[in-house]
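Entry 12.
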Amino acid sequence: MTTLTGGDPQTQAAIEAATSVLAGRRIAVLTGAGVSTDSGIPDYRGQGAPARTPMTVEQFLASDSARRRYWVGSHLGWNAFAAAAPNAGHRALAALEERGLLTGVVTQNVDGLHVRAGNRRVVELHGTMRRVFCAHCGQVFDRRDLAARVEEENPWIGVPERIALGPDGDVLPESTDGFRIPVCTVCAGMLKPDVVFFGEYIPAEKFREAEQLVLTSQALLIAGSSLVVNSGIRLLERARRRRMPVVIVNRGSTRADARATVKIDGGTSEVLGILAEALPALSS
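Predicted 3D structure (tokens):
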């Protein structure tokens, strides 16, 4: 087995234990922001993450000034966010699915990197930044088209070369003065990114899809999530009730370390790559 670069014996032993419990089983994967940090997208709670106060759905829906602040910050960060590329961890999960070892990926991320890496069955639990929809008539827009329209309607807006990108592709704007908030071109209604804001519920049908993926698997691999969000804990508990082994890969502690069959304290890019290389093909 490939060893972890600079890894301590305890971490290496955990990787070997994880390989043992995952081998021969079809695996469901749950990923969080830690999987995308090596692609240049920061997370909210990881080690060294700056303190941030994300906008809630109540703020977004209730206030023109909040929506203006959101769309300015989101537009300033969009190019860098959209340019992020899948990293070795994303590619490892795509390779495992290609070999038939994964039933699919449930992700809490909105960056679309699992899809771009080649995973075919991806449940985007918190939505995706690739789409925007009208809260009034339901019309859906491609985010790239909206970005072009924002620049056309706000020709003065300039995107700096260096930005402090946030976890959801946003930037804290210095000013929002004079910014024209984009509206639906069909009915002039309020536009909202197709993501689950803080304080907003995950659509029931989306959670059922994620739950079904877990329940039709034989093991659960959780990567890059601190499991602070309740949806992740609920999926973990579904697996535990089925007596499925649960492996957690995360740099630093998580809310469910004590409930894992194996916990690996390490970076997801390298550890997932090692697991992808070490796990044998399923016997027919």
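Annotation: The two ends are 23 Å apart (CA to CA). The chain has nine helices and nine strands.
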